[in-house]
Amino acid sequence: MALRDFFGRLRGGAPQPTPETPNPDPPAPVAEIPPPEPEAPPAEITPPEAEAPAKTGWFARLKAGLSRSTAKLTDSVVSLLHKRRLDDEALEELEETLITADLGVAASRRIVEGFRRTRFGKEVTDEEVKAALADEIAAILDPVAQPMEIIPARAPHVVLVVGVNGTGKTTTIAKLGRHYAEQGLKIGFVAGDTFRAAAVEQLQVWAGRTSARFFAPAKPGADAAGLAFDALTAARADGLDLLLVDTAGRLHNKSALMEELRKIIRVIKRVDESAPHSVLLVLDATTGQNAVQQVKVFKEMVDVTGLAVTKLDGSAKGGVVVALAQEFGLPVHVVGVGEKAEDLRPFAARDFARGLMGLD
Q: If phi over 0 gives left and psi between -120 and 50 gives alpha, with beta otherwise, what is residue 25?
């Protein structure tokens, strides 16, 4: 598959703050660690060599991953509208049902208004209801289904990966690195989650498996901004195409922790004023509507340019993707429905909408 077909151009970008006077104290030196001999993989993800060949296609895995969300949504909607005329009362109940399925108030209202214009007063079958809902949902999702393209001229294209604790940032970086490496790009991983040894070790294992250059802190708890500075300097000198920067998970309501992200961005800009070129916010679908609040805060603090939604396979709250699309309009680059590298794929609006409604 060509790179441009796998990832589309990322829109938006980080603001350009006034350059600051560099700290007279040089950042902590970065230790480049050669890839180790492959060992037993971390529990979070299965290494490529250990993965069994996929027995089903991507859409089948997506549909299976969304099955809990599908059951929650379709069971309620079908029972509500089964052989019933879509009058005002039925449409009001439909809106309430969609809201409880995590589609959000704005998206639910938009869907109901679409039903009102085209199907008001009509009796509809179960399949017609699901197909109509899928069409309305796809219309909301289509504008944000924008795959991410790495721009070689930036050399390296810097992607800062952010999110709260436990969303799967490190795993997402590993999977993205593998995909891009398969496209022939020279990759670098920056283990910016310096306080969590497991995250550093996990990226180190994947760096070895994807032939990525690996940048680790000189010691546990080292300054992540200094690490990012040194890693980007080295990546530019070595002609890497892509630098994926991990960051520590942080609560979106802790201003001091969020300020550390701003510091990383300021320091990176001392090397390349246009970096980071992408700020990818990783969201855990199991958090439901809490993901909406996370986007609000991260977007204000670090100018998020795109989203990755993970753990759809473990949630009955997949409808939150619709709420995010309606409220923010941020590109949704990838979605994850499992732990294997192949279970993270570019977001496709129609496939997601039909999978959410349990349709083929």
A: beta
Assigned token pair, 272: 């390349």
Do the bridges between strand 242-245 and strand 157-162 make them parallel or antiparallel, or are there none, so unpaired? parallel
Between 146 and 77, the more confident residue is: 146
215 bridge partner residues = 32, 190
Mean pLDDT within 344-352: 94
pLDDT tens-digit readout, 268-297:
999 999 999 999 999 999 988 899 999 998
Q: Is 284 helix (H, G, I), strand (E, B) or coil?
A: strand
Backbone angle region of 187, left / alpha / beta, with phi > 0 → left and psi within -120 to 50 → alpha: beta
Give residue-wise pLDDT tens across range 44-100: 333 434 444 445 688 888 898 888 889 888 888 888 877 678 888 888 999 999 999
The average pLDDT across 299-319 equals 89
Q: Provide the pairing of β-strand 187-190 with 242-245.
A: parallel
User: Is the C-alpha dihedral spanning 29, 35, 40, 45 positive or negative?
Assistant: positive
Tokens representing residue 121 in the block = 């007063």
φ and ψ at 190, to 5 degrees?
Answer: -115, 115
The answer to whether residues 264 and 228 touch, using CB atoms and an 8 Å cutoff, is yes
Residues 65 and 313: beta-carbon distance below 8 Å: yes
* Distance in angstroms (rounded) separating the CA atoms of residues 76 and 52: 36
What span, in angstroms and rounded, lies between the C-alpha atoms of 299 and 303? 5
Rounded (10°) CA dihedral 75, 76, 82, 84: -170
What are the residues whose beta carbons fall under 8 Å from the beta carbon of 148, sequence distance 6 or more?
7, 8, 9, 10, 278, 280, 306, 331, 333, 334, 346
CA atoms within 13 A on the CB side of 101: 27
85 contacts: CB under 8 Å, gap ≥ 6: 121, 122, 123
**pTM summary value:** 0.82
Cα distance between residue 223 and residue 348, in whole Å:
38
**H or E element, residue 295:** helix 290-302
